[in-house]
């Protein structure tokens, strides 16, 4: 992560006044301290009770609005990750055309991780949709 900030600072991606590079570094630190525990709780909730019934393309036909809302949230998150892919590719292209060619691995990793996030958000969508269907099946079998 720090290599990314070093490369982007050397490529003059940040304004030269004040501590413009400090803001993204502190943002990353804040994300690590506050965001990751919440992220792990979110993942645990999403994957609880999924087992063999997981379906990537789940859709609850009885509750289309709820299915649409869940899908839109996760597609929006995947879209942000796609934006990160383009941003990272732009960085890679800029590094390849600069004196910092030896530091291109920072951008290559970011491109790969960004693609991974796209897949992750779509898998999480499937987890929440599968959970909704399992909950509905359990409720209807109890009646």
Can you offer a commentary on this structure?
- The protein is elongated, with a radius of gyration of 20 Å.
- The chain has 4 helices and no strands.
- The chain has helices at residues 2-10, 22-47, 64-96, 105-142.
- By secondary structure, it is mostly helical.
- Helix 3 (64-96) runs antiparallel to helix 4 (105-142).
- The chain has one domain (2-11, 18-142).
What distinguishing features does this structure have?
single chain, 143 residues, mainly alpha, 74% helix
| Share in β-strands | under 5%
- Distance N to C terminus: 53 Å
- What is the radius of gyration computed over CA atoms, rounded to a whole number of angstroms? 20 Å
**Count of DSSP helices?**
4
> Which structural category do the helix and sheet elements fall into?
mainly alpha
The percentage helix is: over 70%
Mean pLDDT: 79
Total number of β-strand segments? 0
Total domain units = 1
Reported for the largest beta sheet, the result is:
none
Overall shape: it is elongated
Residue runs with pLDDT of under 50 for 5 or more positions: none
List the secondary-structure elements in sequence, H or E.
Answer: HHHH
